[in-house]
Write a structure and sequence with these properties.
By secondary structure, this protein is α+β, with helices and mostly antiparallel strands. It is built from ten helices and 30 strands.
C-alpha cells in the first residue's frame, strides 16, 4: 500500500478503487473450497509428526458468522526439522503462532501454515499454539460439501452445524489433515456461544462456564478420534438421556441433543437407539465408546458419523421392517461408530471398509427385524445400484474425492461382504468380521487397509483370498460364466475369467447343490440347462452355449 500514496491524487483514487474491486472480487471467488479434499499423499513435513492432542478454544459469533480463538496442537516429532506444517483453510487468518510458548515465524499460504524458527524444532514433544479467526467456509450442500451451516430452527432460534468429512478438520481448526493420524490422547474443545444456546460435542461434557451473557462448553474425548469427527453443533437443545447396559455389562448413557421444539420425538429415538445398539453389539462387539456416551445430535442436514455424537435428521419419519419402525439415517451413521470411528482406514483409498461394511450392517438389521426375506431384499437393492464405473480401491494415498465418487464403496462394498459370507459360510465369516471390529490390532489407535482385511480373512479361512479381494476391490470385472451343452443332458459349467476356485449353487432337476468350480469347470447332468447362482451371491454374467 505504501506505493499508492506516491501518486497524484486523481490516479491514486482510481488505483484505490480498482484495488478495492479486485479485493472484493478475489474474496468472493476464494470462498469456494470445493477443491479441498482430505488425505492424498502425505507431505514429508507431516510424515514426521505424530499428533497427540488438540485443544480447540473458540468464540462463535453467530450474528457475524465468525469464529475467533486458538488451537493447541501437541505433537511428537520423529526427527528434527526446520519447518512445522499444519493445514488450515485460507479463509481463516492466523494472528500469532507459538511453539512451546515462544513466538515463532509463520507463513500462511495454499491452505497451510508453514511454521519456522531461528533454530530447528527438535525431535520429541512440541506444542504448537495457533491464534486465528475469521469467517469459516459455509457448507453449500452439507454434509457432502463441508463447512458451517448457519440457520434457524422452526421457532427462530439460531442453529449451527459443522460438516467436514470431504475437506477435513482444517475448515475450522489447524490440524494435520490426513486419515492416517489421529490425536492419541484425544481432544479438548472449549466452545463459547450465547447463553441461550447449547453446544453438542464429542466425548464428555466436563463443565459449562457462564460469563456475562455467554456460556463456554468444555467437551473432552478420552479416545483417539478422526479430525473430521472433531466438530460441534449449536442449537436450542434439550438433552434427553437414558442409561444403556452394554453387552459386557458397562453402563453408558444414551444422550439425545434434540431441539426443544422436537422433544416429543426424543423417547422414540432413544427406544430405536437401544434396539439398534443390541443388534450392532451382537455382530460387531461392545459399543466402542463406553467411557463416554452414545450421543445423537439433531442437525439441519443429513446425518454424519461424528464420534459419540452422530448427527441425525430425517424429520422423525420411519420406514417399516418386519412391522417395526426403522430409520436408515439413524442406523447407518450409528454403524460407523464401529466402522470408521473404531475401525479406521489408514488411507481414503480404502474407504470401502468403513462405508461398505456399515452399509452391510444395514442388511444385518434387516435380517434381525424381518428375517431372510428382508435381508435378501436389501442385498438385492444394493446389488442393483452397483455401477462398476471404477474400482473401489483405485490405488494408494488417494484423497477423499478420488475415492468417494459414486455409491459403489457403499453398495458394492456391502455386496462384497455378502459374497464373501457365501464363500466362507456363516461359521467362519461372522466371527472373523467380529474379530476385525474387536481385535486391538485393527482398532482405536491402529489403522487398517484392504490388505489387512484380506490377510485376516485369508488367515481365518486358511486359504489365499487375495484374488477374490482383488476381483471385487481392484477391478470392475464380473464373473464370466459359460454353460455349454456337451452331451445328452450334460452341461459344462465354466468360469471363463477364472482366478480361483469358488463355490456356486448349481440347480438341476434333482435339486440345488453348492459345488466348487475349479479352472477346468465342472460337468453336471440335468434334464434342462442348469441354473448357476440363482440367488445372486456373485456379480456375474452367464452365457448359454
Amino acid at each position: 500500500m505504501k506505493y499508492l500514496f506516491g501518486f497524484k491524487p486523481r490516479i491514486k483514487l482510481l488505483i484505490i478503487g480498482c484495488a478495492v474491486i479486485t479485493c472484493f472480487a478475489g474474496k468472493a471467488q476464494n470462498r469456494d473450497i470445493s477443491y479441498l479434499s482430505s488425505g492424498g499423499k502425505l507431505n514429508p513435513l507431516q510424515a514426521i509428526m505424530d499428533i497427540r492432542h488438540y485443544t480447540i478454544a473458540l468464540d462463535v459469533n453467530i450474528e457475524n458468522k465468525t469464529i475467533e480463538g486458538s488451537t493447541e496442537v501437541e505433537i511428537l516429532l520423529s526427527k528434527s526439522t526446520d519447518t512445522l506444517l499444519l493445514d488450515l483453510v485460507h479463509l481463516l487468518s492466523v494472528h500469532k503462532v507459538k511453539v512451546n510458548n515462544k513466538p515463532v515465524s509463520f507463513e500462511q499460504k495454499n491452505d497451510k501454515i508453514y511454521i519456522t524458527n531461528t533454530a530447528p524444532f527438535l525431535m520429541g514433544k512440541q506444542t504448537i499454539r495457533v491464534e486465528y479467526g475469521g469467517e469459516p467456509p459455509v457448507a453449500i450442500k452439507p454434509p457432502w460439501t463441508g463447512g458451517f451451516t448457519w440457520t434457524k430452527d422452526r421457532s427462530g432460534n439460531d442453529w449451527v452445524a459443522i460438516n467436514c468429512q470431504k475437506e477435513g478438520g482444517r475448515v475450522y481448526f489447524p490440524c494435520k489433515d490426513h486419515p492416517s493420524d489421529e490425536p492419541n490422547e484425544g481432544v479438548d474443545m472449549l466452545i463459547t456461544v450465547p447463553e441461550n444456546l447449547v453446544v453438542a460435542g464429542p466425548g464428555l461434557l466436563k463443565e459449562v462456564i457462564k460469563k456475562k451473557n455467554k456460556k463456554t462448553y468444555h467437551w473432552k474425548t478420552n479416545y483417539t478420534i478422526s479430525n473430521y469427527c472433531v466438530i460441534f453443533n449449536i442449537g436450542k437443545y434439550k438433552v434427553v438421556s437414558k442409561d444403556y447396559t452394554s453387552i459386557k455389562g458397562n453402563v453408558v448413557p444414551i444422550q439425545f441433543y434434540v431441539l426443544e421444539e422436537d422433544t416429543a420425538n426424543a423417547a422414540k429415538i432413544i427406544e430405536l437407539k437401544e434396539r439398534d445398539t443390541k443388534v450392532l453389539e451382537k455382530y460387531f462387539g461392545e459399543y466402542p465408546w463406553v467411557k463416554e456416551k452414545i450421543g445423537i445430535g439433531e442437525v439441519p442436514n443429513s446425518g454424519m458419523e461424528h464420534q459419540t455424537m452422530i448427527t441425525f435428521q430425517n424429520k422423525f419419519n420411519y420406514s417399516k421392517i418386519g412391522g417395526q419402525d426403522y430409520s436408515a439415517n439413524l442406523y447407518h451413521e450409528y454403524a460407523h461408530e464401529w466402522w470408521a470411528n473404531k475401525v479406521t482406514n489408514k488411507d481414503w483409498a480404502h474407504m470401502w471398509i468403513q462405508e461398505g461394511i456399515a452399509t452391510y450392517a444395514e442388511a444385518l438389521i434387516y435380517f434381525e427385524l424381518g428375517g431372510q426375506a428382508a435381508y435378501d431384499e436389501i442385498i438385492n437393492r444394493h446389488k442393483r445400484s452397483i455401477r462398476n464405473k471404477k474400482p473401489m480401491v483405485g490405488g494408494e494415498e488417494l484423497s477423499e474425492d478420488e475415492t468417494y465418487a459414486g455409491n459403489d464403496i457403499y453398495t458394492k462394498g456391502s455386496f462384497f461382504m455378502h459374497s464373501l459370507r457365501y464363500v466362507l459360510g456363516d461359521d467362519l465369516f461372522l466371527p472373523t468380521l467380529k474379530q476385525l471390529s474387536t481385535d486391538p490390532k485393527y482398532t482405536y489407535d491402529n489403522f487398517v487397509t484392504s490388505t489387512d482385511v484380506e490377510q485376516l480373512f485369508s488367515s481365518a479361512s486358511k486359504q489365499n483370498l487375495k484374488p477374490f479381494f482383488d476381483f471385487y476391490l481392484r477391478s470392475t470385472d464380473v464373473l464370466d460364466i459359460s454353460v455349454k451343452e456337451v452331451g445328452y443332458q450334460k452341461y459344462l459349467i465354466k468360469v471363463e475369467n477364472f482366478f480361483m476356485p469358488l463355490p456356486f449353487d448349481i440347480g438341476t432337476n434333482t435339486g440345488t447343490n453348492k459345488i466348487l468350480i475349479n479352472k477346468e469347470g465342472i460337468t453336471v447332468t440335468s434334464n434342462y440347462a442348469p441354473q448357476v447362482d440363482a440367488k445372486g451371491y456373485y456379480l456375474k454374467k452367464i452365457t448359454l452355449q
